[in-house]
């Protein structure tokens, strides 16, 4: 049954937040009437006037009817169920209290509180948090310290463990006027789990207790007159209730309290802090009046009257109240009313008079904190109070109170509502003069851009306008390129206007330091804006704007951001800052002040364009530029394209040689410094050494090296890149340059590296005899002996002709002869006819001794040849007279056939073969290994027989292609040819036997033979 207003003529835009739905279950008459109800964890605990306790589980409609031990002699007063539904207490009007555990079917008397009528219970919060969601059997857990309020005005502590009472003690009592403790609530301080807050309510008083670490110690500080304090209402309604409201039960802490009084609902916020004993957690409170009496009818918009709420009801104290997140639920006599906690307006009001006639008198309300459900009960039925979209109108109430943050929290994700709130907040801030905050709020609304921009322009609030534009800019999607560019340009101009204003004189009492600080802050903000939005700005327009406002520093910063290194280099060169220009040219990375890092695109054209200007600026810049070039990847620049720049550098260097020398502080002829080195030589030497270079680069480097006073670098270059095959440079050009610049040593080296040793020695002799000798020594390893002798003759002849003193000449020639293969008789023709050869005596003696040794050697060889000749003659004679006897029974050593009736071949080794068998054996061998017949002992025969050699090669090709299959019909060899080849050597004693040693004893094709050798042959 749904108790809600179903009047079809009422045209309501939205459904009611509240609705009342009756449970299908109904208490049977034998169990009496329901007099008390408690709820927790989807469990309802009811006490009846017939002495029964009913436990009802909402989820599965499971019911338990438990009878009190003294049913009929005592009356149930109230029932209490802890939030986990694991523990319950039943209080009777006769002063007895019973404990009922989860799963138990019997109640247990709590003797420690006998004689006290229990009015209220505050369950232990620590135990609730620990056992939430854990249902256990009877006696399996304890309650912890539970506070109990009595009708006599005392607060007791009760502990039950394993289904039995463990302890009970009196902690505190009202000592001036007897009155019942009708409401008890407790919570823990969020930052101290051993510190308690307890609130106790009587019909006219509200007490607050703070302390710990136990309840006993806390209440001991409030006994007597110590810390005695309470809030009191003079009117007594005879009953009261106390409730705590939680945001997230049981994890969260209590946020507010509600106390039912005669005057109204006393509500207050709970603010946990550093309170000590005697302090108050609830200091700020208000009073909510009960609903006014209602009329008996209500008029709709059409003018008709329909009965809705029954008879008039007077204003009175509710029987019971409950507190949801934003509403107070009140059960009055014959009426159920819900009041909004924020607006205090009645949002739901329904008559219960007709339903009371059906289901009995409505007695009270109960709240299930763990499930956020609310219940109302009558004599025989229980009703659930359904709450739907409770905070639906909360945002409007908070908005009307200008609590914009609260309104946003409670409006959900509805975009229309959030837009209304943001718009109202923005207008509020604008009217309050908080323009920057208003700009940010306007950016979150859907109001037109033109309206908001015009609003700030009219108010002449350029800073707020800039803030608004930045916020809009951040919200625009990346695809809106046109809008992004327009807004970015506008923001740029606003920044520049603000900077221009700050550059002017101080106004409105600003000090110079304040002005300077503000200008620096705005400049930094502008730079960060450029860094974050450079990709949406039109570069030409932005650069023009910054230039028109005369902001060179910002212009340089913007050029750095967009990577316009061309402009930066021109800018610094025009101001004589070549070092900065070089840094920009060599910079691969740009780092923004915001910490972002962006890789700059390498542009080789910049190097080709600006290298001439930097090289000719000063020796220091030229040296740094070349250091930069040599530190780069060799492949990113083409050295050929840098040759014109270094030609210009070389020209300027020659024209300003004196200036260059003065710049490094040295005089010509002194030790060279790093700046004296020709930078072209440095760069191109590095270029050719690190990678293969074009011949043009080598030629240019050669042209630079020949001009250097010290020829060591030139000689090293020639030795490395010149060789007899092909030089890396143009040999003729290099030789011409060396001769042109009188680089004689280099000329000799050039001839040497290309193998022209004669010319190399001729040129080297112009320098020194030692150089020529070194070349001749090297040539001995590379040229034939005869040519080497000619080279040494060139050296010796030069010494003889050059030295006028014959004695000295002979002495020098004698030294030369000691280091070469020349002989004295080869040198003597170059001396004059009449000369004393005393200094050459040793060489003459050595020469004669060599001749004598040579004659003796020839004599020994002649004797050996004569002996060999005579031995050969004796062998030929013996061979002609050699014979042997073959028996008529002799058989062929290959076929085992008699040899008497057929042609046969007899070898000196004693083996005899039939010619046919010998020929067949040779043919089979040739099929398998034809190449063996072209080498070894057969080579002497096949080399003379061209036909046989060619045909054997053909057989070898067939064997290679067909894997051993040879077609002899394709071979142009007669049987006579095969026989002549077979008779060359004995097949059982010659090389054929050695070659066949690697063959298996039984060939794979000889199946029968292989089977005869098998040990598994059956």
Strand count, sense and barrel status of the largest sheet are:
5 strands, antiparallel
Structural category = alpha+beta
Task: Find the count of extended strands (DSSP E, 2+ residues).
Answer: 35
Major β-sheet strand ordering? 1-2-31-30-29
Can you walk me through this structure?
The chain is of the alpha+beta class and 1018 residues long. The chain is built from 36 helices and 35 strands. The protein has a 5-stranded antiparallel beta sheet. A 4-stranded antiparallel beta sheet has the order 3-4-5-6, with no helix packed on it. Strands 7-8-9-10 form a 4-stranded antiparallel beta sheet, with no helix packed on it. A hairpin with a 5-residue loop joins strand 32 and strand 33. The longest helix has 40 residues, at 841-880. The radius of gyration is 61 Å and the shape is elongated.
Jot down its keywords.
single chain; 1018 residues; alpha+beta; five-stranded antiparallel sheet; four-stranded antiparallel sheet; 36 helices; elongated; disordered N terminus
